[in-house]
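quick one, two chains, predict together pls
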Amino acid sequence: MSDERIPILRMGDYLLVSIQVDMHDKLAVRLQEDLTETISRHVSKGVMIDISALDLVDSFVGRMIANISAMARILDAKTVLVGMRPAVAITLVELGLSLPGVSTALNVERGMALLRKQLERGEHADERHAQ
Amino acid sequence: MNVTRSDVLAIRSEYDIVLARQTARALCQELNFSLVEITKMVTAASEIARNTLIHGKGGSMRWELLVENGRAGLRLVFEDAGPGIADIGLAMSDGWTSGSGLGKGLPGTKRLVNDFDIQSQVGTGTRVSIVRWK
């Protein structure tokens, strides 16, 4: 149980994390550490977090997602959250968590498109800055 | 109001929070709650169970299947013998947090259930009761 980890898949410049188990606190903390380490090691440009298998996002998991997004931003990587179930979205908003600063997309395909778009926009901004 | 069935489970570790959630989910399903109703009640259970563990230093969750005027409901009662809450009004206000949280726990949880009751005494402990009706 103590070795339990959420796998982080690397696809070129991006990382994909698919959360498919009932999160408990230690697992969430370990994911934050593993992910920031992986971003740093591979100089990843984007992180996609798939929560389509989660039937619940409470304030703990919500905070973990917001933290991951903030940590990735500081490490110069974009985060997009994909696959949130409708019942989870309704519950999150009533709970008072609207996940400010976290980009979302309905599924992995759209999430990837969003990451690419954000990255292109970022590069263009850098070019303009250089001129 | 009649209690048709009840049981108690301990909340002493984070794995017990997962168990509390799973228990709440199974009971909601037994009462034929809709998916949104289940998600709200299980999320509420998760929030309070974590409070019981972190702030209350552990405790218990008692669940009760209720029947009142022909409708069914689920009551979850979380009790701890922790430090207690000095100012419940403050703890129930949106945005207030005692530490690492987002300050959404208690007021947010109240919005997810039909009945919400909290009693706390400094030095004695805290008792939170939540009910969701079918």
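The mean pLDDT of chain A is 89.
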